[in-house]
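Incident log, structure service

09:12 report received: a user says their structure output differs between two submissions of the same chain.
09:20 pulled the input from the user's history:
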Amino acid sequence: MSIVEMKVPVIGESISEVTLSEWLKEDGEYVSMDEPICEFESDKATLEFPAEASGKLIYVAGEGDDLEIGALVAKIDTSVSSPENGGADSVSDETQEEPAAEEKKEETSEEKQKGSDSYAMGHPSPAAAKILSEKGIDPAAVKGTGKDGRITKEDAEKAKKSEKSQPQEKKEESYPDFTPKEAFSREERKEKMSRMRRTIAKRLVSAKNGTAMLTTFNEADMTEIMKLRKTYQEKFVDKYGIKLGFMSIFAKACAQALMEMPDVNARIDEDHLVYHEYVDISVAVSTPNGLVVPPVHNVESLQFHEIEFKIKELAEKAREGKLSLDEMTGGTFTITNGGIFGSMMSTPILNEPQSAILGMHNIVQRPIAVNGEVQIRPMMYLALSYDHRVIDGSTSVTFLVRVKELLENPVQLLMGL
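09:34 re-ran on a clean worker, output below:
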């Protein structure tokens, strides 16, 4: 017997441990070289782990186990050849008579159809459950094609696509099915935190305790931006095939202000300050597993439609758990939009090692004084949290005022003034 040990590979410099989120192959199943056998959930992304040899897969670790880099995950018995190529598993099948083989197949199909005694029947894998939860699809409405009727990742993705073609059903299934609890219920449940959630918790505590964080506030009159979008939205969509959103406008305004005030775009590296001659803006994206902040690189050099496409691409990948480590790396400044959830005002926490983060909030019609007259204008509160070790108070206020100026006068933004 020849055994190949499968160990957790080195994934990134800052990653010392991963979680085995899902087995893609069954224990004892024959696998081919480079065929994905499981998925790892790291601090930043979900990664597939390919087989390093062909042979029979032998589980060592289980789903949900936390594994250090170099830990043993599985073994592959390379002495077992593929059943399709006349291996050990297929020889026994060939010695059986054809009627017996057909009878066995019929029994197997009947077992799969019944599925009453199988736990896997109708039960989604972790990756599939994540996709179904995101789309609000009841697993009971999805037919599993995996072993014993298990719902695979592919099944969940197909179900997601079929939802788009049936908008009425989507509307009905978009809300979670909450079972009413009995009055004065005292029930509790405990769930293990995902690796991403644990990492988010550690990073937030580190940012709160390890930086001199302060927040300064201002408000922006969104009248001109809304007028700009209303006037040119149709032409913008016709030319580029995507809508002009608020996020790309905010990203460009911040990029211009950051290039003018490099202190806000800097970070601490031990006893040194690192200044960036470019602007990589991390955009906060809410996912079923928590908040992720993939960066859009070189925003200062991109056009509005290029920023919109990149944000859309990163957001879709984030929600599907398909972001690569490279797509999660970097960022010199962060923008988070709590307004889409109805937030009026907040104090966002820094995304280390960055020194500043801008919080957008909801747009509310409020009475304000304009040239000595009270007018109703669409107003948004802005919040800039910053590390006082890097950024002085005057610099932070000046930066936020500059962003406000560019937002209220988008012609300056378009002309680079």
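09:41 both user submissions now match this output. Likely a transient worker issue. Closing.
09:42 reviewer note: Residues 223-240 form the longest helix (18 residues). The CA atoms of residues 212 and 388 lie 5 Å apart.
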